[in-house]
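Moderator note: this is an archived Q&A kept for reference. The question asked for a predicted structure of one protein chain; the sequence and the answer are reproduced below.
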Amino acid sequence: VFNIRKKNERNLGQGYNFSEKAELKNYKKAGKKKNYENYCAWESSIETQYDKITEVKFFINFKAYLKKRYELYEQRHEMATSLWIPLLTLLISFALVIPPVFISLKQYQDNIQNTIDDTYLTNMVVTGMDIEEQIPQQVKILQNRVDQCESTINYVFALLFFAYAILVIIGIILSIVLKRGLTKIAFYKDYTNVIDKIISDFPKDGD
């Protein structure tokens, strides 16, 4: 459906001898000495392109087409902007949450180790068990707890890093979309103004 719609829009543009890709490329060249020295030079190139068309109705319909395209990109830009704000909030929230999470896990790990150390040292004194018999068991339990905690830390780190990376990628894509959207909005607005000017140059009824 999307491809059919895109093809129909492209065919409609061709009916006005208009190619968004080519015209947008020319628009971006405005102000560059090797191409169009300024906006007026770019505007003149469009007027020259359509100087052989003598029917004002053509330009009125063309203006309606350009206006429709302008509104379409404006809506897309607003949608992308509405997504960018909550995304930026999530990125900031992640950046603020990640350090405390790891600090808490590290403290938890240290507390486990301290608790086990204190417990087994007390048992050694109370029970009078031989230290040589008690240490291997203590070390084994301690190591299991530490390993488990380290695994949890690594898992949480990987999960948060993966989620943050996805958010960053989405943010980059949205930034590109926003930038391109603004360029196309400005392009269609300026192009419509040029067509408006051409229309205004036609003699009014009764003149």
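Archived answer notes: The longest helix spans residues 56-127.
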